[in-house]
């Protein structure tokens, strides 16, 4: 019988000899193949290497320096994205000079949000890469690239978004590419470590990993849908940008932004004298599709000879102004635009809704040029706290954040066949990001700057200023605060021509036939200046 000594080998030939150290366990290293006899004595030969279980925590792609490095770089990119997102968030409420954009800024903020969310997703699901996730990343990358092309190539969008919006889109594109790189490297490291430590590649996942992959897939599907909606909305915006503005877009505030001003009709009579021009101030929506349409009809009927209207910052064809933007600041922009356009009055101001606040401030600052005011269901200063409600501001901010998705715009455009005119100044103008931003700006300063300006305007406005007040009967009956506010407007002057309440008229009083007739009559009285008030300082009103 062959003998085995510790540390020594048998004298048999190499083909049928085996060497063991004394005291070795069954996991000892086999140096040569055992023969049949030794197999019977000592059992099956031990494996050449000791492999780990696939479920062992040591089997991890984090063993690789490249995987760990990408993770730490991802943390840094997340911090950069969050800081950028925070700066754009602050700029939504108080414009940082370097980050001012002529557009609403909602797209730039949304791209920053997308980039920050993408980096969070990368870190949350870093250790569980999947082909499905990479496919969704590639889809998101493609649509972000299309977004960037549209923003850069469409001039109105490019000027509106400015450099910060372009950088935000480009950053979201880079971050998405980084996510694809991380997912690819981690998957390669996962497979290589499995093969090295377990002896083979396997695709088996734990329950926790499957939950992670499923959650990541749902999140990335949402990201892909968001970028698709961004693309549709940008395409609609590019189309709207081709609609030419009537009149002129005039740079104001040291050429920082432009406002739209349009004057219709000759400003001189046949004998060369200047005519009194109607200066219209729209309410809660652009003038072009509402107040200006009635004035155009009145001009056609020869009730008036000439009128001008403008779009406040953020409305119609006007750019958004920097925040804060009070009513007095908007009036300053109008005054500058009129001066640059060579328009000097004399004026009769016609204002509707919230536009009444702006017209009264304008009148107090141009007393010599303003010959009278026609307040059409105008907003009284006593109700400014309604405009300044924090809940309203939160709602407007949320609408602005969701605006880049453009779901309502896509539905109205694709299924309801709305035109460019409807979206820019017509019935769907309330869906525009610029108008949402302008109303948010209006809300933020309604009870502070604007309230102080209108109180000062009330004190400055001469008591002999001719004023006519025409109110919606439906609004007066439905809201006591509104009725009291209309009554207070009728006490602004000692020369109030009358307070007319058109019984069946809505807020747009001129849409009612009787309301249109009353408005044209009062407007004629203001233009002719040949009819005195029917009372001294005690106002009256008529239900019509």
UniProtKB/TrEMBL annotation:
A Pfam family matched in the record: DUF2417
The UniProt transmembrane annotation reads 72-100, 106-128, 135-157, 163-186, 207-230
Tell me yes or no: is ATP-binding among this UniProt entry's keywords: no
Compositionally biased region (Polar residues): 8-30
Q: Where is this region: Disordered?
A: 1-54
- List the keywords (alphabetical): Membrane, Transmembrane, Transmembrane helix
Q: Which organism is it from?
A: Ascodesmis nigricans
- Lineage of this protein's species? Eukaryota, Fungi, Dikarya, Ascomycota, Pezizomycotina
Gene3D superfamilies in the record: alpha/beta hydrolase
Identify this protein by name.
Answer: AB hydrolase-1 domain-containing protein
